[in-house]
Amino acid sequence: MRWCWIWLNPQSIGDDNFVDNIVDMDSNKIICADCKDFLNKIPSESVDLVITSPPYFQQREYGGGGIGNEECIDSYIENIMTVFRQCVRIIKKTGSIVFNIGDKYIDGNLVLAPYRFALCVQKERLAKLINEVTWVKINPAPKQDPKKLIPATEPFFIFVKSHEYFFNKDAFLEYKDMFFNGKRKNAGNDVGKKYCALIENSTLSDKQKKMARDELQEVIGEVKQGKLDSFRMKIKGIHALPYGGQGGGRLNQIETKGFTIIKIYGNSMRKDVIESTVETIKGNIHPAVYPEFIIQELIKLLTKKDDIVLDPFLGSGTTAVVAQRLKRKYIGVEIKREYVDYAEERLRKQQKECQNDLFEALL
Ligand SMILES: C[S@@+](CC[C@H](N)C(=O)[O-])C[C@H]1O[C@@H](n2cnc3c(N)ncnc32)[C@H](O)[C@@H]1O
Fold it and tell me: What pLDDT is attached to residue 22?
């Protein structure tokens, strides 16, 4: 059986009276409003994660009259900052804020919109930027400019407001561990066997051989447990001697112990890079949907079950859909009614699929 979730009807709200009454942070909500006004109604320190992608600067006309089509970049950044300041107020001390902003060429010049925004946050000392996670697009839009490379990355900035922030590092891209652990078992055995034979055939003393065998077993264990991706061993008289930089320490080890082990933390390392295709959902009416996969990994990294996730620029509802699937609570704000309706439809559809799964599981 796949996941299942008790459905709480999202409240779709369009009138100010209701907005004024929102104090209950305990149920899922999608609100049709301008987030610059609406975020004022959310209590301070009540949200676990804000994750969002504001409209990019002069990129497209969404038709809702919101942020994005300011005349100059400074006004755009100021509007984004107005929302960001509210986000800092409403997140808990343990919470975090993720903003994904794309860049823009003006007269052939990249304006560096994401970095102007991040610098503004730093200048105001509003929050700490703990990571810039780079989205590497597997299928970027093929632009026609023969004298420019195709832009294929976008930043997801992770900000926190205190060092108490929640951070489940192991949950980020954890599928890589599952995949590589299977491979590692073999890699550990094969590499281990090769080095065992080399130790026995080496000119190391018996004491050095024992030490080498013990350390080798230890490192093979680490590979099998998934703590390490792989390792290399250099044995005196068999391998070329390392030199320079780190080699200084290694050379010393080879001279004193007769061997050195180089640990390789490859895929088990949690790197600030995430690869994903540009999303196209069949029938999606929104022109700028961000990938569910990236949002899923960031929500897993920054929240736990039942935490509250808020997206002030909800668009087609991706954040809410992923939050619902991961059993987090969601609040979404979107200025354009058509997108609110579409987001609700996505949530209903997902919930129905979930109920069908449950029904099948009971048969
Ligand atoms: C880049 S899109 C977000 C797309 C979304 N991440 C998704 O996956 O569908 C930005 C959205 O912000 C909305 N928007 C613009 N200004 C707004 C405002 N002041 N308040 C709320 N929503 C706004 C736009 O209508 C647009 O749907």
Answer: 53
Q: Ligand 1, residues 12, 278, 322, 334: which to mutate, most atoms within 8 A of Cβ?
A: 334
53 Cβ closer than 6 Å to some ligand 1 atom: yes
Is 315 near ligand 1, meaning CB less than 6 Å away? yes
The pTM of the full predicted model, rounded to 2 decimals, is 0.79
Q: Give per-residue pLDDT as tens, 248-260.
A: 688 888 989 999 9
Taking all residues of the chain, what is their mean pLDDT, rounded to a whole number?
A: 87
For the chain, the domain total comes to 2
Residues 156 and 193 in one domain: no
User: Is residue 73 within 6 Å of ligand 1 at its C-beta?
Assistant: no
pLDDT in tens, 282-317: 788 898 999 999 999 999 999 999 999 999 999 999
Specify whether 149 is located in the same domain as 219.
Answer: no
Q: Print the domain residue range for 36.
A: 30-171+271-362
Calculate how far, in angstroms, residue 27's C-alpha sits from the geometric centre of ligand 1: 21
Distance 316 CA to ligand 1 centre (A): 8
Is the same domain home to 251 and 286? no
Q: What is the 3-state secondary structure (H, E, C) of the chain?
A: CCCCCCCCCCEEECCHHHHHHCCCCCCCEEEECCHHHHHHHCCCCCEEEEEECCCCCCCCCCCCCCCCCCCCHHHHHHHHHHHHHHHHHHEEEEEEEEEECCCCEECCEECCHHHHHHHHHHHCCCCEEEEEEEEEECCCCCCCCCCCCCCCEEEEEEEECCCCCCCCHHHCCCHHHHHHHHHHHHHHHHHHHHHHHHHHCCCCCHHHHHHHHHHHHHHHHHHHCCCCCEEEEEECCCCCCCCCCCHHHHHHHHHHHCEEEEEECCCCCCCCEEEECCCCCCCCCCCCCCCHHHHHHHHHHHCCCCCEEEECCCCCCHHHHHHHHCCCEEEEEECCHHHHHHHHHHHHHHHHHHHHHHHHHHC
CA 40 to ligand 1 centroid distance, Å: 18
